[in-house]
Hints:
By secondary structure, this protein is mainly α. Helices cover 78% and strands 0% of the residues. The protein has helices at 2-19, 23-36, 41-54, 57-70, 75-88, 91-104, 109-121, 125-138, 143-155, 159-172, 177-195, 223-267, 273-316.
Amino acid sequence: xxxxxxxxxxxxxxxxxxxxxxxxxxxxxxxxxxxxxxxxxxxxxxxxxxxxxxxxxxxxxxxxxxxxxxxxxxxxxxxxxxxxxxxxxxxxxxxxxxxxxxxxxxxxxxxxxxxxxxxxxxxxxxxxxxxxxxxxxxxxxxxxxxxxxxxxxxxxxxxxxxxxxxxxxxxxxxxxxxxxxxxxxxxxxxxxxxxxxxxxxxxxxxxxxxxxxxxxxxxxxxxxxxxxxxxxxxxxxxxxxxxxxxxxxxxxxxxxxxxxxxxxxxxxxxxxxxxxxxxxxxxxxxxxxxxxxxxxxxxxxxxxxxxxxxxxxxxxxxxxx
Length: 321
């Protein structure tokens, strides 16, 4: 019984040091406890966490692997490994272990968040969008996921969507500096884009001719990649449909009636200056809304093109069997 009490005391003291961010002391006590019982998953999780926070990623990976040996279906161990691999810059390995963790726990917002990081850092931006969207679906208060989703949309030059997601992050956490900086950068980019467009906006931005390449249906992708591709395309198409619907509604219910009202006002024999000014102001508001919706649709169309290009480039990098 004395040995058991000593073991429990070691574990308690190690956890207290870990909470106090006294990582070296925690590691020494966790290791001493492991010498008494090397089958306790929580001890290796504590060791992995302490080493990671000290910056020793290799040791953290080794201890998380020990956790998966003792508890092969412990999803958090794979997800935590993914976070460590992201820190190491090994994004391919991060994707591998994160997928394994998400197979075990499909409701892990942190898992999808870390998967989004890995995809963004490896320049697979549409896949990152899909991962981050799943993270915020599972945790609607996940400010970091909204902020990172804003970053991805900014990278894709989809500034309207970047704006939306930076604002959502700030709604959740008003003092979120990274989201505030992202919002400022996006607003500056939108202002710059406006200066290059005519006052009525454009439905689809100018783009280079499409590449003469094989269709996505013939891509050499593994089943998991093909499923993620399907989810990404489905999400983008839903968004395109919503954008187009808003644009058509605006044209039918607001812009065309506004133009007709302006015409009637100006054609009157005695034009009322106040009525004419009110009509111009109303029409200007509708034109501004039309401009925003047009650029939002253009950004989503570009997102679909970028996704197809990324997937085709990925497939071309895989040697044929």
